[in-house]
Amino acid sequence: MNPFFDIEPGLKELPSEFADRVGTLISIQSSKDKKKRLGQYLTPIEISNFISTFSFNDKEKLKILDPGCGIGILSSSLIEHLVMSKGKLKEIELTVYEIDKVFIHYLEHNLEYLKKWTSDFNVSLNYKIYDVDFVLNYAPILESCQNLFENYDKFDVIISNPPYFKLSIDDNRSIAAKSIIKGQPNIYALFLGISSKLLNNDGELIFIIPRSFASGQYFR
Known about the structure:
Elements: H1 15-29, H2 32-38, H3 45-52, E1 61-66, H4 73-84, E2 91-97, H5 101-119, E3 124-130, H6 134-138, H7 146-149, E4 155-160, H8 172-176, H9 187-197, E5 199-207
Parallel strand pairs: 1-2, 1-4, 2-3, 4-5
Helix pairs in contact: 1-4, 1-5, 3-4
């Protein structure tokens, strides 16, 4: 099946609704093997809208990171919530990571619609899409070198539904993040550990992870 199709937002359709509709169409055409290999679990819009309310940021300018962006539904829901909360928000810098070429094909289209939507509320949105592996790109920040740590941008809000699958010990990502690994690692824990290092002191870390993360030696 051809994974590429033409789709446009509907009249008065929210960016999160548009992203959800696009994501559903992509998911139908994606194979189970591909979803398992990339650990792809698209966030339902009900969950996306709910966890976006966990952010209480009230700054005029926000830097947001979505490290496993998918089609952009979490970023869209979060930004909708922040914009419609009618705070002081005037400017957003959004950074997203996604390695699936099919998703990226539509992601920019979705974020352009989100940008247009925010402009109707007099909020400026600028975004950057990175098509590189988030863990490999940021793993050096896990080391203790303070000078290295200061070279990375920090974020006010980091929101993610990270990929979920176990990594072998000899996987490049396991090797790169060895300083935080106990036993056989799961990719989502590396996303969480690295993101915590990228957060501003007063920042918000909003993740969808298994509740088992909070217990046991495996996750210590």
